[in-house]
Amino acid sequence: VLRPDELAALLDRIPATTALELRDRALFELAYACGLRAEELVGLNTGAVVFDAEEVRVLGKGGKTRIVPVGEHALAAITRYLERGRPALDAHTGETALFLSKSGRRLQTSDVRRRLRVWARAAALQGGISPHALRHSFATHLLDGGADLRAIQELLGHSTISTTQIYTRVESARLRSAYRDSHPRA
Fold first, then answer.
1. CB 112 within 8 A of CB 42
2. Distance between CA atoms of 142 and 146, rounded to whole angstroms?
3. What are the phi and psi torsion angles at 69 (to 5°)?
4. Three-state SS for 52?
5. Cα 85 to Cα 19: distance, rounded to the nearest angstrom
6. Is 109 exposed, middle or buried (0-12, 13-18, 19+ CB in 10 A)?
């Protein structure tokens, strides 16, 4: 799990001036803002983001569709990418993918992992940062902020609460620390 300041350093490190940088910034802002899997990111089409409703329609595991709210930072990054980045990458092949490679094809999950490693190194983050680390950070930061575990389950697209409960380990440690620091007879 990345700390919020580490995530900010990672995202802010992507300058978003070239088409590929605009794409990468939008890609990773969206990944963290919505807790999306790499497969879900590369599966998005241009119509998946509903700007007026501030949400994204995601096709998850098992072919299940879920609607996830999108924050303003991710929406702004996607808007910049769609206006300035995607047109420069579009090879006029009729590709409907939201995120395109430099050759105009749909990104693959390996592309997402590779680009994240590049930006993690640029932000001087230690360890193997993966797209799943962004997803795990999303869930942990929501839990730390007081979000209900059931709501996090729905946002992540987990079919059972037991799958989501892995994030309670972090919460339990935080609660033990708060108890130890706050209770007079701890």
1. yes
2. 6
3. -65, 150
4. coil
5. 4
6. middle
Rounded to whole angstroms, the Cα distance separating 15 from 30 reads: 16
First to last CA, the chain: 28
Give pLDDT tens digits for 97-114. 999 999 999 999 999 999
In single-letter form, the type of residue at position 144 comes to: D
Name the more confident of 182 and 98: 98
- pTM, entire model: 0.87
Q: Minimal CA–CA distance to 19: which of 123, 102, 93?
A: 102
pLDDT computed for residue 169 by the predictor: 62
Residues 6 or more apart whose CB falls under 8 angstroms from that of 186 comprise: 179, 180
Q: Hunting for tokens 């007026």 — which residue is that?
A: 52
Q: Is the dihedral of CA 161, 69, 75, 105 positive or negative?
A: positive
Q: Which residues form the catalytic set?
A: 37, 61, 132, 135, 158, 167
Beta-ladder partners of 96: none
